[in-house]
Design brief:
By secondary structure, the chain is an alpha+beta fold. The chain has helices spanning 5-10, 55-76, 122-135, and strands at 18-21, 25-29, 39-43, 80-84, 100-105. It has a five-stranded antiparallel β-sheet, with helices on one face. The chain is globular. The protein binds zinc ion. Zinc ion is lined by residues 4, 6-7, 46, 97.
């Protein structure tokens, strides 16, 4: 089985520009930054994505993302950030170890919006909301 690149970074077997680490989570600079200062936050323990991460670890990742995002305007001079998580290949996930992108934003035009409205069909919206509401736990 091929080694997981983010597990290797978490174990310090591969180099990374680490900005924070503790026993549970780690944040480091993306080697292919979408904008200046693009950071990834990962759990140190391997898990695939949103579908299988433990809730406590998920919370820790978002708490760290918040701490990092809040200092980005001062450190980088950005005026906004995007948080992005891809769960599954159909959602652009390429590295199969949970990661949350923190992408500093400097202006509206440096990135393209990832979506345009798929549908404005009011009956479809109502039906989907009803089905999710019924199943949510
Ligand atoms: Zn991994």
């Amino acid at each position: 089985m091929e080694k997981c690149i983010f597990c290797e970074i978490a174990k310090h077997n591969l180099p990374a520009n680490i900005v924070f680490e503790d026993n549970n989570v780690m944040a480091f600079a993306d080697i292919n930054p979408a904008t200046k200062g693009h950071i990834l936050v990962i759990p140190r323990k391997h898990c695939l994505n949103l579908f299988d991460i433990e809730s406590d670890l998920f919370t820790r990742i978002f708490q760290l993302a918040k701490r990092i995002a809040r200092i980005m305007p001062e450190v980088l001079g950005c005026s906004g950030v995007n948080l992005l998580h891809s769960a599954g290949e159909s959602a652009w996930q390429e590295v199969m170890h949970f990661h949350l992108h923190i992408i500093p934003r400097y202006n509206r035009k440096e990135l393209q919006r990832p979506f345009i409205p798929h549908s404005t069909d009011k009956d479809e919206l109502k039906e989907i909301a009803r089905r999710i509401k019924e199943k949510i736990k």
